[in-house]
Design goal:
Layout lengths: L10 E5 L2 H13 L3 E6 L7 H8 L3 E4 L13 E4 L8 H8 L4 E2 L1 H8 L3 E6 L4 H14 L4 E5 L5 H4 L8 E5 L2 H4 L9 E4 L13 H9 L10 E5 L3 H6 L6 E5 L9 E3 L3 E4 L2 E5 L10 H15 L3 H8 L10 E6 L2 E5 L6 H9 L5 E5 L18 E6 L4 H10 L4 E4 L3 H11 L5 E4 L12 H13 L3
Parallel strand pairs: 1-2, 1-4, 2-3, 4-5, 6-8, 6-9, 7-8, 9-10, 10-11, 16-20, 17-18, 17-20, 18-19
Antiparallel strand pairs: 12-13, 13-14, 15-16
Helix pairs in contact: 5-10, 5-11, 14-15
GO biological process, one term: regulation of cell shape
Pfam family, one: Mur_ligase_C
Enzyme class: ligase
Length: 450
């Protein structure tokens, strides 16, 4: 960890707790800042705030009072989940205060190489693949960020000859100033999180921020099949390494249908890859590019791709019961992710879907639902999901209260050879605090089937 002096004796307000807020507060306190923490949850119900209070950190809970801005703070560190429309954050911006997220802190203190991964879909798989490839090559790597381990915690222990592979959301990237990975990746860009961002343009700009501070010594691995994305990163100073699943690239990463190549050199045969689904080729190509640029051998890359079958909550095989296979794709929080999951199967499928209503219509799922025999719908979007399934020609539609009831219903209608797929196409927040909790409840319910 770099002995960073930039926060010594500065008044810093941390808004919002959870894992990233707690980690940022403790780090800033360690770096000599005068930290005040503000969280909406009352102190009596707020274990995180109580923990920080015990460390001598000032804590204000129960609301986000705009009056806090009169206390002379020099900067704000914001939990990524708090929108910029929050009155306290709007007030801070109006006053010209920097509003950062904890990944900026991680960059400022990190001695390790940073590989940053963003995109609408595939971030977790790509991040995990890169981490596994580096580890397989007998090098030390940490998977951090939006994948579950807070980046500024990892940055305190990662050494100069080690790598931090950080999964980054658009929410986190909106709060950076100097953050500049030596290798950055944008897997793809589709409409998503438009309840948080004011427009798709703002969302794309937030994702493209991953490369805004990179230099000519750095690399940007980017999806060449998306013209809008290529246009959004055209300003980068980094060396662009394109990848394509649709055409062969002599300079970049692509496939001839038999092997995956980088800069014209064969890296791995498609038949050696265990991870299913056409959509995962994007993630695999991006991971190959990052691993090779980091110095990982092709042998280590091939070994990982021959063993890696997926990450938890992303088309995760859970169990086979009575010749019925159950898959947990709770991380599918948007339509495209569910399309990709459905397209990975050809056998009769029972789709469990629904969740937070962000105003989307789900008719785009229609082309991917030809093999869906039953749709089991739940959550705020249950009726919209039912309408989309009906319009796609699905005749068996079952409405249930939640994921537990959905598993029970699926077990009753499934037949030998079927797939039961939890792929909600929606965020979880109408019923569950995170997609991980939703997926864990699914796994538990499936494992209880007798």
């Amino acid at each position: 960890m770099i002995d960073y002096k930039g926060y010594q004796n500065k008044k810093v307000l941390v808004v919002g707790l959870a894992k990233s807020g707690v980690a940022a507060s403790l780090l800033l306190h360690r770096l000599g800042a005068f930290v005040t923490v503000n969280d909406w949850k009352p102190l009596s119900e707020n274990k995180d705030a109580q923990q920080l209070l015990d460390q001598g950190i000032k804590v204000i809970t129960g609301s986000h009072p705009v009056e806090l801005l009169d206390e002379g703070f020099e900067l704000i560190v914001k939990n990524p989940g708090i929108p910029y429309s929050n009155p306290l954050i709007k007030g801070a911006i109006a006053k010209g205060l920097p509003v950062l997220t904890e990944v900026e802190l991680a960059y400022q203190i990190s001695e390790a190489d940073i590989i940053g991964v963003t995109g609408t879909n595939g971030k977790t798989t790509t991040t995990t693949l890169i981490h596994e490839m580096i580890t397989k090559d007998q090098k030390k790597s940490y998977a951090a960020g939006n994948i579950g381990t807070v980046a500024c915690e990892v940055a305190q222990i990662a050494k100069p000859d080690e790598a931090m592979v950080i999964e980054l959301s658009s929410f986190q990237l909106m709060g950076i100033r100097q953050f500049a990975p030596s290798i950055s990746i944008i897997t793809n860009i589709y409409d998503a999180h438009l309840d948080y961002h004011s427009s798709k343009e703002e969302y794309v700009e937030a994702k493209a921020a991953i490369t805004k501070n990179q230099t000519a010594d750095d690399y940007l691995i980017v999806n060449a099949d998306q013209e809008d994305l290529m246009a959004a990163v055209s300003h980068t100073k980094a060396k662009i390494v394109p990848f394509s699943t649709k055409r062969f690239l002599q300079d970049g990463i692509s496939s001839d249908g038999d092997k995956i190549y980088m800069n014209g050199e064969a890296v791995v045969a498609i038949r050696e890859i265990v991870l299913p689904g056409r959509h995962n080729l994007e993630n695999i190509m991006a991971a190959i590019g990052a691993a090779r640029l980091y110095g990982v051998s092709d042998d280590s890359i091939r070994k990982v791709l021959g063993e890696f079958s997926g990450v938890k909550h992303r088309t995760q095989f859970v169990r086979e019961w009575k010749d019925i296979k159950f898959y947990n794709d709770s991380k599918a929080t948007n339509i495209l992710a569910t399309q990709s999951a459905l397209d990975a199967f050809t056998v009769p499928t029972i789709l469990l879907c629904g969740g937070l209503d962000r105003g989307n219509s789900f008719d785009e799922l229609s082309d991917s639902m030809s093999h869906v025999k039953t749709a089991i719908v739940f959550g705020e979007t249950a009726e919209k999901m039912a309408d989309a399934a009906k319009n796609a020609g699905v005749t068996d539609i079952i409405r249930v209260k939640d994921v537990n009831e959905a598993v029970t219903a699926a077990a009753e209608v499934a037949a030998s050879g079927d797939v039961v797929l939890l792929s909600p196409a929606c965020a979880s927040w109408d019923q569950y605090p995170t997609f991980e909790v939703r997926g864990d409840i699914f796994i538990e319910a499936v494992n209880k089937l007798k």
